[in-house]
Predict the structure.
Amino acid sequence: MNIGGIPGLRRQGSAPRHRAVAVAAAVAALAVTAAGCGSSGSSGASGSSGSSQITMGALLDLSGQLASFGKDCQLGLQLAVDQVNGAGGFTVKGHKYTIKTEIEDGQSDPTTSVAATRTLMQQGVKFLFGPDTDATSLQVLGVLKNSDVLDFAGGAVDQELIGHPGYTSVFGVITPNPEWEGSLIPLLHQLNIDSGTVAILYPDDTAGQGVIPQFTQILKSHGYQAKGYLFPPTTTDFRSVVDRAKASHPVAILDGYSAEWGLPIAQAAVQLSAAKAVIGVDQTPEDVPLVIAKSSGGTFPLKWGSMAADQQAADPTTPGAAMYQKTWVKYLHQQPSADVSQIAIWFYDAVLNVVAAMKKAGTVTDTTLLSNTIRSMTFQGAETVHYTSQNLPIHGTDIAVLVGSKVKYTYVPAPSS
């Protein structure tokens, strides 16, 4: 799977303008708070007030084609660090620790990312977050093989390596590929759609170009027909692409991205009576109950399983999401909106997950013990998450219920391990 195979991520270097500006402003604001965390040092460096500093490194694409991903990862990571340090740090076996960040720019380039990873390892960094996409994940994991670095990687293609021999201290942040892609068929059967054409709608970028063939193959292997439709990432009126898809007389319309595009597509499908069902396949949708979308033109099922990140941040219904919102407001001086990126939440939770594991395991240095601890626990962060035996995460989800033009969200915790 190429970078386009990353489920739940919205864009490839071309976010909607209002969102890109918001992210840039947020990252700039965080740079002020990050300055207090220092820029170099090892995991055992002394901190203030008798505490020690744990250095957490990050390999993020802060420039190049994938900079929007990297900046979102930086946002989530630094919010978590600020939350921990703002509370005075954390205690393990009676000793206080704070976190210092060491961030390297992978520049959306495999060669640069490999060199940056080696730099962080030479500095003694034992906790690493990144890479953030498939573009560099295999190359970076090659450097980490058989090391004692505990890493959270954001790619999808590397799921064939994560958690296996040589990579037992590497954890994913994205739902396992088979669970994501394979969930489509049970959803169709649940909707009593056992044959016919499924229209697959994706933006015309590397995501759409990569994912449409994958879903097409899955559908055809189960006796369905499939037809893909690409639309410009800058599209705001989705009636045109839905109308084109309607011409193929689909029994269902599939959108596997996020609410940013998926919900307008669903609304257009309602207005045009384009299909029997609209399915938004995002994260663990098989765990989300069936919901109904109603319009003046009738009623049809809308299934949308998405990460809890966006709406939980904007309207928290869990303690972890409320803490995320509180941290966001404290350091960015604004309320988070539905444009908060899912990957920002993933990296935010990953940092806090490591801290929780340190407390539970009673160590800040034994990454093997910490890896075993993370696998054994369910973490309650902005979302709930637990890891499979292959170090791949099962997240909590949102149900987005479209009723006319209004959307209501309900949180569904991750199923227990």
Observations:
- The longest strand covers residues 95-105.
- The longest helix spans residues 67-86.
- The chain has two domains: 3-175+311-395, 178-307+397-412.
